[in-house]
Every structure is written in C-alpha cells, then in structure tokens.
Q: What sequence folds into this?
C-alpha cells in the first residue's frame, strides 16, 4: 500500500480545492472518502472568539461540502463509491457552551441526509458516523478539558469508534451512532423538549472550576 500525504490548512477556503487538484495530479482515484476534520471551541457564545468560530465553520462545514461535492461528482459518474461523513452525537442535541460546534455537526447530518436522497439511485453510498465523547486531542484544542463531561465522564476508545464507522461504511449503512449510551442519549434528545435537553447538556458541559467563560 502506498500512502500519499498532502498537507493543507483546511481553515482556508481554497485548501480543499488544492487537495483535490493535487490528488488529480497524482493520478489517484478516490473510491472511499472519509470527511473527519473538525474542531470546536468551549465557552459561552457571548465571550468566545468569533474569528476562531468562523474558522471552525469553514473547517467543519465548508471543507466537508467542498470535498463531498468534488468527489461525489466523480463517484456518481462512475456509479460507485463510498463516503463516510464523521458528524457527532452533538448533531442530535443542542450544545450549550459549544453552540457553534453542535450547530456545524447538525449541518453535516442534515446536509448528508439530503444529498444521500438526491443520489440514492447512483450506486454511491453515504454513511453518517455520530460518535460521542471520544478520547482524542479534540478537547484540548477546544479548551474543553475542564468540562464535567470530559473531566469526569467516560470517553470512547477512538479505535472502537473508527471500527464502527468503517464497518458501517463498508455495509453501506445510512447512519451509525457509536456506543450504546450515545444511542440512548440520541433517543432521549428526540423525545424530550429541546429546552429540557439543552438544560441537561448545559449541566453536563459546565466546567469543574465553575467558570464558564473561555480562557
């Protein structure tokens, strides 16, 4: 197996197009696309950095949309291919203290469901993976390590989450929520009023030091 590494800053709007162009220049055909780049920012929306949030929106939404369009067009033309969109359990529930992140993941899930319907007769399968709290560097980059659900709660093994996503992708499933407790939380999120779910999530996301402002 040959691995080709292309380093680009996906916070930049043009970077996904540059990645695509380099892949084409290498003569590589993408049969399976995994969109998994994403970051978040912890804190009250009124105090967090808007420039950082706009970068996150570009990364979590703009890059996904660009990569999906460019490679899906090729897959539809070939009438075969697979795409895995890494969304989040956060797509199913409101996320106080990480409002922009949850909003971007809600977009990813909704966007993917719509595009999948449009292309359902194309021979291409598009799968959504929604993990919960996972033991990765995400929370350090989001300055979220002091949140109760991160500092005190269980974290999923990233290898197990990746395995769930891979198996769902290869099986052509529409969506998988990784982890039994996350599945249960998603169900509750659809049953309880949004205001109740938001209040519960706010409590879980509170910092252990009691200070909700971004550092």
A:
């Amino acid at each position: 197996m040959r691995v080709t590494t292309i380093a680009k800053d996906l916070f930049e709007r043009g970077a996904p197009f540059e990645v695509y162009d380099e892949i084409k220049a290498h003569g590589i055909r993408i049969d399976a696309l995994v969109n998994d780049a994403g970051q978040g920012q912890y804190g009250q929306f009124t105090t967090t950095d808007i420039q950082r949030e706009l970068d996150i929106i570009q990364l979590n939404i703009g890059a996904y949309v660009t990569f999906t369009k460019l490679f899906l067009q090729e897959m539809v033309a070939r009438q075969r291919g697979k795409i895995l969109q890494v969304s989040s359990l956060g797509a199913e529930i409101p996320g106080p203290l990480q409002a922009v992140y949850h909003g971007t993941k809600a977009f990813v899930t909704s966007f993917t469901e719509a595009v999948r319907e449009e292309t359902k007769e194309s021979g291409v399968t598009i799968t959504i993976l929604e993990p919960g709290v996972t033991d990765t560097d995400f929370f350090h980059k989001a300055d979220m390590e002091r949140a109760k659900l991160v500092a005190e709660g269980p974290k999923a093994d990233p290898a197990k989450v990746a395995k769930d996503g891979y198996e769902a992708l290869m099986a052509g499933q529409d969506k998988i929520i990784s982890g039994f407790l996350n599945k249960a939380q998603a169900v509750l999120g659809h049953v309880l009023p949004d205001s109740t779910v938001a209040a519960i999530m706010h409590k879980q996301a509170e910092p252990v030091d009691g200070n909700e402002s971004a550092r």
Observations:
- The mean pLDDT is 94.
- The helical segments are 15-25, 50-78, 99-118, 138-141, 148-151, 158-171, 180-191, 194-205.
- The chain has eight helices and four strands.
- Strands lie at 32-35, 81-86, 124-130, 175-177.
